[in-house]
Design brief:
The chain is α/β, with parallel strands linked by helices and about 300 residues long. About 40% of the residues lie in helices and about 25% in strands. The chain is built from nine helices and 14 strands.
Length: about 300
């Protein structure tokens, strides 16, 4: 093989794993067109098609799947070897890509990430916020954040941030005009602000009684797609909202929002940082994991 084949094989493995030139180009720091040119040269040298391309997808051929199966373990060993050397650095370095839901940024990461970057000037961080159940490996992320630790077997979960609880709130004016519910099922008689996930599914409000979880379907004329809009809707009197208590703590203290059904709320939960279970983590990711764990333990 020619001396430039190793970078081309790395490029092929990235495209074949992501099944996307755009995602692979982001991971490798090159343009999609340059990446496509590299792959065509590799196929020409090998005299075999490795990828089937269309305007919508990139799929490895049978030969491409076989090559990827052999390359992936070798490339992972190379990455692990490099990261093992990086552990000898006094200062973590490198670029991290993190996927997190909007709520995690509001409740847990918003104050912590700037402090982490200030403490580790050799690390750069890209954060992508969405509420989808993203495949972080396939999308080229180093780590993600979710509200629980029920993940795929090849993932490691690290609890981050304080315990978080939820609350049902509305304005005093709303409660003056409507009878306060005594059970979660009575919410079905109220104007509730609903939450829609990216999948199209609407969130069923969660409660607990004698250790058993309950899910209640609510109704209302307003549907939103994130927690910030829910809180804004509650403050503006659109109706009843189920949200993170931390987001409305000041409103509750000031009396501009009032809570109900406090005795029916589920136990507090934690966000978790999760990442692939590798023998050697990238130095920047290891620093982030350690920082968030130490920060959580200190609180």
């Amino acid at each position: 093989m020619e001396k430039e084949s190793l970078p081309a094989l790395v490029a092929f493995a990235s495209v074949a794993s992501h099944r996307s030139f755009r995602r692979a180009a982001t991971e490798l720091g090159v343009s999609p067109s340059a990446l496509s040119h590299t792959l065509r040269k590799l196929e020409a040298r090998l005299e075999v098609r490795l990828l089937n391309r269309s305007t919508r997808s990139v799929v490895p051929t049978e030969a491409g799947e076989a090559l990827l199966a052999d390359l992936a373990p070798a490339l992972e060993r190379m990455r692990s070897a490099v990261e093992a050397v990086n552990r000898f650095r006094d200062t973590p370095v490198g670029k991290l890509r993190l996927n997190a839901p909007y709520l995690a940024l509001d409740a847990v990461l918003g104050e912590r990430l700037p402090r982490f970057l200030a403490a580790h000037p050799g690390v750069s961080l890209e954060v992508v916020s969405d509420d989808k159940l993203t495949d972080i490996v396939g999308a080229g992320f180093d780590a993600g954040v979710r509200f629980d630790d029920r993940l795929q077997p090849d993932m490691v979960a690290q609890r981050i941030g304080p315990p978080l609880s939820f609350v049902v709130v509305a304005t005093p004016a709303y409660w003056q005009a409507h009878t306060k519910p005594q059970t979660p099922w009575e919410l079905q008689q109220h104007a509730c602000v609903q939450r829609r996930f990216p999948s199209g599914e609407r969130y069923r409000w969660e409660f607990a009684q004698e250790g058993q979880r309950l899910r209640v379907t609510v109704d209302g004329r307003l549907v939103v797609d994130n927690a910030r809009l829910e809180v804004m809707a509650a403050r503006q009197g659109f109706g009843v909202v189920y949200c993170l208590r931390q987001l409305v703590e000041a409103d509750l203290a000031a009396g501009t929002l009032e809570s109900v059904l406090d005795g029916w709320m589920p136990p507090p939960e934690h966000f978790h940082l999760y990442y692939p279970s590798r023998r050697h983590l990238p130095s920047g990711l290891r620093a982030l994991v350690d920082y968030l764990r130490e920060d959580s333990e200190a609180r």
